[in-house]
Amino acid sequence: MQEVEDAQKICVGVIDCFEKAVLLGLTEEERKANLHFVIVGGGPTGVEFAAELHDFFQEDLFKISAFAEQKFRSDGIEVLTGRRVVSVTDKVINMKLNYTGEHSSISHGMVVWSTGVGTRPVIMDFMEQIGQADRRVLATNEWLQVKGCQNVYALGDCATIDQRKIMGSLCLLCA
């Protein structure tokens, strides 16, 4: 790792692995493979990275998850964990308990599916047209303008923001 961008790519890669691991239709072996991280090199950088990755999994993710669960519960939102959605109908969401395989259902008025399921075909077509086909999401500048396009903006799961200028400004402010 030579530059900040290298670390950012690794962070995105780790998050991508988690998003891939929760996709429907994966076997348990495929899921485990997506969550298997290999670090080559036992020097200072490799050892430090392994320790940071371990801390991230054991401390940071746990704290964020625990805080969110506690906040939701205190706000009266029921949090169901340890389940996998197996199907959704217009009235019911069907789940399977991870540990026992037991099935359960919840009636609903609306379902908002917010897991990472991949880039929409319309975005992939657009990315191909503007020369960004080798990416997962649209590249934008710090003002959310799609790189290589005039008057086209993108935000949310379909885009990533190039924050080099912002990061430079933050570094100046914090110095």
The secondary-structure element order is HHHEEEHEEH
Instruction: Report helical residue fraction.
Output: 40-55%
- Low-confidence segments, given as residue ranges, are none
Cα-based radius of gyration, to the nearest Å = 20 Å
Strand content of the residues, in percent? 5-15%
Straight-line N-to-C gap = 23 Å
Strand line-up across the major sheet: 1-2-3
The mean pLDDT is 81
**SSE class:** alpha+beta
General form: globular
State the helix count. 5
Q: Which oligomeric form is depicted? A: single chain
Query: Major sheet, described briefly?
Result: 3 strands, antiparallel
Number of strands: 5
Kindly describe this structure:
The chain is α+β, with helices and mostly antiparallel strands and 175 residues long. Helices cover 43% and strands 13% of the residues. The protein contains 5 helices and 5 strands. A hairpin with a 3-residue loop joins strand 1 and strand 2. Helix 1 packs antiparallel against helix 2. It is globular and about 50 Å long. The mean pLDDT is 81.
List the helices and strands and how they pair.
Blueprint: H1 4-21, H2 28-34, H3 44-74, E1 83-88, E2 92-97, E3 103-107, H4 121-129, E4 138-140, E5 159-161, H5 164-174
Parallel strand pairs: 4-5
Antiparallel strand pairs: 1-2, 2-3
Helix pairs in contact: 1-2
